[in-house]
Amino acid sequence: MAPPSGHSLLLTSALGIFILHCFTRGQKNSTLIFTKENIIRNCSCSADVQDCDYSLANLMCSCKTVLPFAIEQTSYDGHLTIWFTDTSALGLLLNFTLVRDLKLSLCGTNTLPTEYLAICGLKRLRINAKARGPSLEQSLLIYNNGESEPREKIMLLHKGWQTCMYISFLDMALFNRKSSLKAYSIENVASIANTFPYFSYFETIPILSNKSYVVTFIY
Protein backbone atom coordinates (compact mmCIF):
# COMPACT_ATOMS: atom_id res chain seq x y z
CA MET A 1 0.00 0.00 0.00
CA ALA A 2 1.44 3.34 -1.04
CA PRO A 3 2.12 5.93 1.70
CA PRO A 4 -0.20 8.95 1.72
CA SER A 5 0.86 11.80 -0.49
CA GLY A 6 1.95 15.18 0.83
CA HIS A 7 -1.32 16.65 -0.42
CA SER A 8 -3.35 14.10 1.57
CA LEU A 9 -1.36 14.78 4.73
CA LEU A 10 -1.91 18.50 4.29
CA LEU A 11 -5.67 18.00 3.92
CA THR A 12 -5.75 15.72 6.98
CA SER A 13 -3.84 18.27 9.07
CA ALA A 14 -6.07 21.10 7.93
CA LEU A 15 -9.19 19.05 8.75
CA GLY A 16 -7.82 18.28 12.23
CA ILE A 17 -7.10 21.96 12.91
CA PHE A 18 -10.61 22.90 11.69
CA ILE A 19 -12.30 20.33 13.96
CA LEU A 20 -10.22 21.45 16.95
CA HIS A 21 -11.07 25.08 16.23
CA CYS A 22 -14.79 24.31 16.03
CA PHE A 23 -14.65 22.33 19.27
CA THR A 24 -12.82 25.00 21.25
CA ARG A 25 -14.96 27.77 19.78
CA GLY A 26 -18.07 25.90 20.92
CA GLN A 27 -16.79 25.73 24.48
CA LYS A 28 -17.60 28.67 26.70
CA ASN A 29 -14.95 29.57 29.22
CA SER A 30 -15.93 29.80 32.85
CA THR A 31 -14.74 32.45 35.28
CA LEU A 32 -12.68 31.55 38.33
CA ILE A 33 -11.84 34.14 40.97
CA PHE A 34 -9.68 33.30 43.93
CA THR A 35 -8.50 35.34 46.87
CA LYS A 36 -5.34 34.49 48.76
CA GLU A 37 -3.14 36.61 51.00
CA ASN A 38 -4.98 39.85 50.08
CA ILE A 39 -4.54 39.15 46.37
CA ILE A 40 -7.47 38.71 43.99
CA ARG A 41 -6.93 36.75 40.77
CA ASN A 42 -9.53 36.75 38.00
CA CYS A 43 -9.17 33.80 35.63
CA SER A 44 -10.81 32.58 32.45
CA CYS A 45 -10.70 28.75 32.30
CA SER A 46 -11.56 26.42 29.44
CA ALA A 47 -11.73 23.40 31.77
CA ASP A 48 -12.64 22.78 35.40
CA VAL A 49 -9.81 23.12 37.92
CA GLN A 50 -9.69 21.14 41.14
CA ASP A 51 -10.89 23.28 44.03
CA CYS A 52 -8.24 25.34 45.83
CA ASP A 53 -5.38 24.23 43.55
CA TYR A 54 -3.93 27.70 43.00
CA SER A 55 -0.85 26.51 41.09
CA LEU A 56 -2.95 24.52 38.65
CA ALA A 57 -5.29 27.46 38.11
CA ASN A 58 -2.40 29.77 37.26
CA LEU A 59 -1.08 27.11 34.88
CA MET A 60 -4.29 26.11 33.09
CA CYS A 61 -6.22 29.39 33.05
CA SER A 62 -5.61 32.88 31.79
CA CYS A 63 -5.37 34.89 35.01
CA LYS A 64 -4.79 38.49 35.98
CA THR A 65 -4.41 40.23 39.32
CA VAL A 66 -7.19 42.63 40.30
CA LEU A 67 -6.76 45.31 42.94
CA PRO A 68 -9.67 45.52 45.42
CA PHE A 69 -10.25 49.24 44.78
CA ALA A 70 -10.37 48.55 41.02
CA ILE A 71 -13.26 46.06 41.21
CA GLU A 72 -16.22 47.28 39.18
CA GLN A 73 -19.81 46.06 39.21
CA THR A 74 -20.25 43.46 36.51
CA SER A 75 -22.40 40.42 35.64
CA TYR A 76 -21.78 36.74 34.96
CA ASP A 77 -24.05 34.90 32.53
CA GLY A 78 -21.97 31.70 32.67
CA HIS A 79 -20.42 29.71 35.50
CA LEU A 80 -18.64 31.65 38.22
CA THR A 81 -16.44 29.89 40.76
CA ILE A 82 -14.88 31.69 43.72
CA TRP A 83 -12.25 30.19 46.02
CA PHE A 84 -11.89 32.07 49.29
CA THR A 85 -10.36 31.78 52.75
CA ASP A 86 -12.40 34.52 54.46
CA THR A 87 -15.30 36.80 53.60
CA SER A 88 -13.34 40.04 53.31
CA ALA A 89 -13.45 40.29 49.51
CA LEU A 90 -16.70 38.45 48.81
CA GLY A 91 -18.86 41.52 49.35
CA LEU A 92 -16.85 43.46 46.78
CA LEU A 93 -17.16 40.63 44.28
CA LEU A 94 -20.76 39.53 44.75
CA ASN A 95 -23.02 42.05 46.46
CA PHE A 96 -25.77 43.09 44.02
CA THR A 97 -23.92 41.38 41.16
CA LEU A 98 -25.83 39.34 38.57
CA VAL A 99 -24.66 35.72 38.86
CA ARG A 100 -26.78 32.93 37.43
CA ASP A 101 -24.61 29.91 38.33
CA LEU A 102 -22.30 30.29 41.34
CA LYS A 103 -19.91 27.93 43.08
CA LEU A 104 -18.24 28.95 46.35
CA SER A 105 -15.32 26.89 47.63
CA LEU A 106 -13.90 27.54 51.08
CA CYS A 107 -10.13 27.03 50.97
CA GLY A 108 -9.38 27.86 54.61
CA THR A 109 -10.28 26.55 58.04
CA ASN A 110 -11.42 29.81 59.63
CA THR A 111 -14.87 29.98 61.20
CA LEU A 112 -16.96 32.34 59.10
CA PRO A 113 -19.15 35.05 60.65
CA THR A 114 -22.90 35.36 60.18
CA GLU A 115 -22.60 37.70 57.25
CA TYR A 116 -25.00 37.97 54.33
CA LEU A 117 -24.21 38.34 50.65
CA ALA A 118 -26.87 39.83 48.38
CA ILE A 119 -26.73 38.23 44.93
CA CYS A 120 -28.88 39.07 41.92
CA GLY A 121 -30.61 36.57 39.63
CA LEU A 122 -29.07 33.46 41.20
CA LYS A 123 -30.45 30.25 39.69
CA ARG A 124 -28.03 27.63 41.02
CA LEU A 125 -25.63 27.59 43.95
CA ARG A 126 -22.91 25.04 44.71
CA ILE A 127 -20.72 25.05 47.80
CA ASN A 128 -17.69 23.08 48.94
CA ALA A 129 -15.54 23.25 52.07
CA LYS A 130 -12.75 20.97 50.99
CA ALA A 131 -10.17 22.57 53.28
CA ARG A 132 -12.06 21.29 56.33
CA GLY A 133 -11.72 17.67 55.30
CA PRO A 134 -13.49 15.32 52.90
CA SER A 135 -16.89 16.74 52.05
CA LEU A 136 -19.39 16.35 49.29
CA GLU A 137 -20.20 19.29 47.10
CA GLN A 138 -23.71 20.57 47.74
CA SER A 139 -25.94 22.02 45.07
CA LEU A 140 -29.14 24.02 45.33
CA LEU A 141 -31.48 25.04 42.51
CA ILE A 142 -33.01 28.39 43.39
CA TYR A 143 -35.48 28.54 40.55
CA ASN A 144 -35.88 26.98 37.12
CA ASN A 145 -38.48 28.27 34.72
CA GLY A 146 -37.22 26.30 31.73
CA GLU A 147 -35.96 29.43 30.00
CA SER A 148 -33.43 31.97 31.15
CA GLU A 149 -35.07 35.08 32.51
CA PRO A 150 -34.45 38.08 30.27
CA ARG A 151 -31.79 40.32 31.76
CA GLU A 152 -34.18 43.25 31.86
CA LYS A 153 -36.55 41.30 34.16
CA ILE A 154 -33.75 40.49 36.62
CA MET A 155 -31.95 43.82 36.73
CA LEU A 156 -33.09 47.30 35.83
CA LEU A 157 -30.78 50.21 35.15
CA HIS A 158 -31.61 53.11 37.42
CA LYS A 159 -29.50 56.26 37.44
CA GLY A 160 -26.32 54.31 36.74
CA TRP A 161 -27.12 51.51 39.23
CA GLN A 162 -28.22 47.99 38.42
CA THR A 163 -31.24 47.31 40.63
CA CYS A 164 -32.04 43.67 41.44
CA MET A 165 -35.50 42.24 40.87
CA TYR A 166 -34.48 38.76 42.10
CA ILE A 167 -32.34 38.92 45.24
CA SER A 168 -30.78 35.99 47.10
CA PHE A 169 -29.37 36.49 50.58
CA LEU A 170 -26.67 33.94 51.37
CA ASP A 171 -25.68 33.35 55.00
CA MET A 172 -21.92 32.68 54.95
CA ALA A 173 -22.13 30.95 58.35
CA LEU A 174 -23.59 27.94 56.53
CA PHE A 175 -19.99 26.90 55.80
CA ASN A 176 -19.58 26.26 59.54
CA ARG A 177 -22.33 23.66 59.52
CA LYS A 178 -22.62 20.21 58.01
CA SER A 179 -26.34 20.44 57.37
CA SER A 180 -27.82 20.50 53.88
CA LEU A 181 -28.37 23.71 51.97
CA LYS A 182 -31.85 25.13 52.41
CA ALA A 183 -33.69 28.09 50.95
CA TYR A 184 -37.05 29.80 51.03
CA SER A 185 -38.39 32.55 48.83
CA ILE A 186 -40.82 35.40 49.32
CA GLU A 187 -42.51 36.66 46.16
CA ASN A 188 -44.18 39.96 45.34
CA VAL A 189 -42.24 41.98 47.89
CA ALA A 190 -43.36 45.54 47.23
CA SER A 191 -41.14 47.34 49.75
CA ILE A 192 -37.84 45.69 50.59
CA ALA A 193 -36.77 48.41 53.00
CA ASN A 194 -39.95 48.04 55.06
CA THR A 195 -40.08 44.25 54.86
CA PHE A 196 -36.43 43.79 55.81
CA PRO A 197 -35.50 46.88 57.86
CA TYR A 198 -32.43 45.25 59.41
CA PHE A 199 -30.54 44.86 56.13
CA SER A 200 -28.28 47.88 55.71
CA TYR A 201 -27.64 47.06 52.01
CA PHE A 202 -30.73 48.98 50.98
CA GLU A 203 -29.49 52.22 52.50
CA THR A 204 -27.04 52.66 49.61
CA ILE A 205 -28.73 50.73 46.79
CA PRO A 206 -31.67 52.43 45.00
CA ILE A 207 -34.93 50.51 45.34
CA LEU A 208 -37.68 51.18 42.81
CA SER A 209 -41.00 51.81 44.52
CA ASN A 210 -43.13 50.73 41.55
CA LYS A 211 -41.66 47.22 41.25
CA SER A 212 -42.08 43.99 43.19
CA TYR A 213 -39.23 41.69 44.08
CA VAL A 214 -38.54 38.02 44.71
CA VAL A 215 -36.35 37.59 47.79
CA THR A 216 -34.69 34.26 48.63
CA PHE A 217 -32.85 33.36 51.81
CA ILE A 218 -30.21 30.62 51.59
CA TYR A 219 -28.92 29.08 54.81
TrEMBL record:
Leader sequence residues? 1-26
Q: Which InterPro entries match?
A: ECPIP
* Coiled-coil portions: none
Q: Which Pfam families match?
A: ECPIP
The protein's name is Exosomal polycystin-1-interacting protein
**Record keywords, A-Z:** Signal
Name the domain of life this protein comes from.
Answer: Eukaryota
